[in-house]
Each structure stands twice: as structure tokens, then as C-alpha cells.
Write a structure and sequence with these properties.
This protein is mainly beta and 68 residues long. It has a domain at 1-46. Helix content is 0%, strand content 22%. The chain is built from no helices and three strands. Strands 2-1-3 form a three-stranded antiparallel sheet, with no helix packed on it. It is flat, with a radius of gyration of 20 Å. It starts with a strand and ends in a 24-residue tail after the last strand.
């Protein structure tokens, strides 16, 4: 199941939204309210971060490691 990030919808510009993560099936309806407080929420869409090493050689092959 994917992890989705939601944040509360603030009532004013000075209010800070609260973000939280929740596991949901892809087929589940997106949340409209915070599960604990009942505040209105919206789902945050992000591209994610890839932590996989790059295949282009990178800095490792320019140092003293055994990449060769």
C-alpha cells in the first residue's frame, strides 16, 4: 500500500498547516478530514526522492575506491 501525505487546510495565512502520512490502497477514496481532529485536509502530491546511486560514475570513481 502506498503512503500518502496530507495536510490540513488552514483558515488564515498565519496558520501553519499540519502534515501527516497515512497508508491507503490506491482504490481508497482520498481523505477529506483529519482522522483524529476532523479538520479539512488535502492530499499533497510529490514526485518523491530516489536514493538509488547514479549510474553515471559520479564522484566515487574519481576517488580511491575500487569501482574500476
Amino acid at each position: 500500500m502506498p503512503t500518502y501525505v496530507y495536510e490540513t487546510i488552514t483558515k488564515s495565512e498565519t496558520e501553519v498547516p499540519i502534515q501527516f502520512e497515512i497508508f491507503q490502497k490506491v482504490t481508497d477514496e482520498k481523505l477529506t478530514k483529519h482522522p483524529e481532529t476532523g479538520e479539512p485536509v488535502r492530499r499533497i502530491i510529490s514526485g518523491g526522492i530516489s536514493l538509488a546511486p547514479k549510474k553515471s560514475g559520479g564522484d566515487c570513481c574519481q576517488s580511491q575506491c575500487s569501482c574500476d
